[in-house]
Amino acid sequence: MKKHWIVICFVNFFIASLMGLLLRWMYVSPIEGVNFQFLMHGHSHVAMLGWVYMMLYCLIVYNFIPKEAQQKRIYNRLFWITEVAVIGMMLDFPAQGYAFVSILFSTLHIFCSYYFARLIWKDAKPTTFPEKRMLRTALLFMVFSTFGVWCLGPAVGLLGKSSAFYQICIQYFLHFQFNGWFLFAVLALFFKQIQLKIDEKKFRLFYSLFVIATIMTLALPVSWFLTNPVFYWINVVGVVLQLVAAVLFIQNARSQLQVFFGTLSSLEKIVYGFALLSLILKIGIQLIVLFPELAQMSHQIRNFVIGYIHLTMLGIITGFLFGFALKNNFINVQNVIQKWGIQVFLTGFVATEMLLFLQGLCLFFETGMLPHYYLSLFVGSVLLAIGLLLITGDLLSHVKRKQVTTQNNPI
């Protein structure tokens, strides 16, 4: 794996954060000529596909593909073709939204992801059964999630964008991207990091419950558009199974987790602890919304929706990705600038999440707006961008210095 791939991932993430920052500012002071919806599409696509997907690409290749197989030109070519798709979406979504060019680049990214799944399925050599099972399941969820995208065209043509079918297709894609592909992939990498050794029967029970729960909890977003009590009860069973799976995992892996955390630096402990705490909070929120009135309100109050998405995206997924980057020395734990970058980013995340959920509660209890809410949210988001700027800028400077050194000292 080429280390400058990691730099590209962080550049994508920094650009996504700037788009998010601009979105937050538009609530403070609208900007003439900038389409909020188009910019939001660009922000979400670059964050999901330019940051999380590309970072998982790098980490999966580095951790699961043998060194000799990593040298295949196809991995480097596929990375750059996928990055071209990301750049295309980065430029065209804010300009035109869903139009011919942006859809073209989105389609290119999907086909790249199919080919990536095929390569990893063939070349990956996980060392344990849990790693192999979680990695392959993540790839399957990635492919399955795209079925929702392919259904969007027929949904618009037959029923229109306001139809329940269209909205469910979007929720299907997002659910299996976040809770399937992303989450199972980071857990496969996490099992690799902690060198998880667990009785196969116990793991199969945990795995089966977790997969079933992931499928069944799709019922919650479906229930927002189809009012049938059966979806509520399917989600209830899914959330309970997910909780049981989490408890089983903690019981069986507690000693290995303690050993793993004992080997980490203070910053690594903070990052991994942060990711695990975010995962616990996510499960807790899913338990809370089992109350029917709260389940519907969780969808109607936008602050809750954004807060939950960011909890999953920035808290769990990005938290683990930062941890893997530190553990694999892609980010230097001794580097003061990169260390400060992570700490500033985490501070910004905590601040914005608190504001989002507090304002959501204010709307739920009908107590009005928090003082200077939108400006405070923008300031918190500035911290996210500054943190990423510190990390990305320092990584870029190291790459540049390395290139200069190589040119001055040719072999």
Describe the structure.
- The chain is an all-alpha fold and 411 residues long.
- 84% of the residues lie in helices and 0% in strands.
- The chain has 16 helices and no strands.
- It has helices at residues 4-28, 36-64, 67-70, 73-96, 100-123, 129-150, 152-158, 164-194, 200-216, 219-223, 229-262, 266-288, 292-300, 302-327, 336-364, 373-408.
- α1 runs antiparallel to α16 (373-408) and α4 runs antiparallel to α5.
- The longest helix is centred in the C-terminal third of the chain and has 36 residues, at 373-408.
- The two termini are 21 Å apart.
- The model has no long low-confidence stretch (mean pLDDT 92).
What would you say about this model in short?
The protein contains 16 helices and no strands. It has 411 residues and is an all-alpha fold.
Amino-to-carboxy terminus distance: 21 Å
Task: Kindly report the average pLDDT value.
Answer: 92
User: pLDDT under 50 segments (min length 5)?
Assistant: none
| Residues in helices, as a percent range | over 70%
Number of helices: 16
- Principal-axis shape: globular
Q: Determine the strand fraction and express it as a percent band.
A: under 5%
The largest pleated sheet is described as:
none
Order of helices and strands: HHHHHHHHHHHHHHHH
Can you count the beta strands? 0
Structural class comes to mainly alpha
Measured on Cα atoms, how large is the radius of gyration?
21 Å
